[in-house]
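Module 6 notes. Inverse folding takes a fixed backbone as the condition and produces residue identities as the prediction. Think of it as a translation problem where the source language is geometry and the target language is the twenty amino acids. Below is one complete input and output pair. Work through it position by position during the lab.
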């Protein structure tokens, strides 16, 4: 089965130099590590006044790559965001929409976010809720707003029936939020990618012991993070090999047709 990276990027990062920042370099890095596809976003779209310009470059880069799927980056506070999603679905066949409330300075309960989510549901897209990229202390001349975990609870209460991947969460975030979200009156289908869960030893082992790896997906956050370090998080875990394969191939969402 194809190993899959559900959280990778193309482009430059303004806070420090990143290597292998083009799509061809990311694809080669994936191939060197046994990965054959991924959900891809543009780093530059986070910062442009018009994110569409950066996403247009990403579309050209991955066009014709059947195993790589475009995730559109949006800022719901900007005019024209909903039109951009409609257009990206029709012209580019995007598979998801990425929200970055910390970088773009809005609350996930804002009415404009709800309007964006209505369109995401209309097209049966995945919402990628990115609560952090790298440690906020590394972006020393610009401090993204720290996303309160309570916002995520409120978000899923307000926006039911979403297909969602939470990106940039620490493993403590997952352990705290999962039982709350699963106990809520929501029909959201929520998964967690693992790229930021490198805050200690035996993280995946601990999640497995607590029956939490069933909704864990492999994501690298490359090229910001070193891809091999996020792979080792899973590969070196003392868990059954079939469980590792489910994580590295993102089997649970693949079986639900999220890559189709």
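Target side of the pair, the amino acids:
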């Amino acid at each position: 089965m194809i190993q899959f990276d559900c959280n990778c990027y193309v482009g430059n990062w303004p806070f420090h130099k990143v290597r292998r920042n083009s799509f061809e370099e990311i694809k080669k890095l994936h191939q060197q590590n046994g990965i054959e596809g991924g959900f891809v976003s543009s780093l530059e779209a986070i910062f442009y006044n018009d994110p569409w310009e950066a996403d247009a470059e990403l579309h050209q880069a991955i066009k014709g790559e059947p195993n790589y799927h475009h995730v559109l980056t949006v800022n719901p506070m900007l005019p024209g965001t909903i039109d951009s999603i409609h257009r990206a679905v029709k012209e580019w066949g995007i598979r998801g929409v990425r929200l970055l409330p910390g970088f773009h300075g809005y609350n996930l309960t804002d009415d404009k976010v709800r309007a964006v989510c209505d369109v995401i549901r209309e097209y049966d897209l995945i919402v990628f809720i990115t609560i952090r990229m790298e440690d906020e202390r590394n972006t020393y001349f610009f401090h993204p707003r720290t996303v309160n975990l309570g916002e995520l609870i409120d978000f899923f209460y307000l926006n039911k029936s979403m297909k969602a991947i939470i990106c940039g969460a620490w493993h403590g975030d997952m352990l705290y939020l999962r039982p709350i979200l699963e106990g809520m009156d929501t029909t959201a289908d929520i998964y967690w990618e693992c790229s930021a869960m490198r805050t200690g030893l035996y993280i995946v082992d601990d999640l497995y012991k607590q029956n939490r790896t069933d909704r864990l997906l492999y994501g690298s956050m490359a090229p910001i993070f070193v891809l091999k370090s996020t792979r080792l998080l899973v590969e070196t875990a003392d868990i059954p090999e079939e469980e590792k394969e489910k994580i590295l191939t993102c089997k649970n969402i693949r079986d639900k047709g999220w890559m189709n």
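Reference fact for the lab report: Strands lie at 3-10, 35-42, 68-74, 96-99, 126-130, 163-167, 189-193, 216-217.
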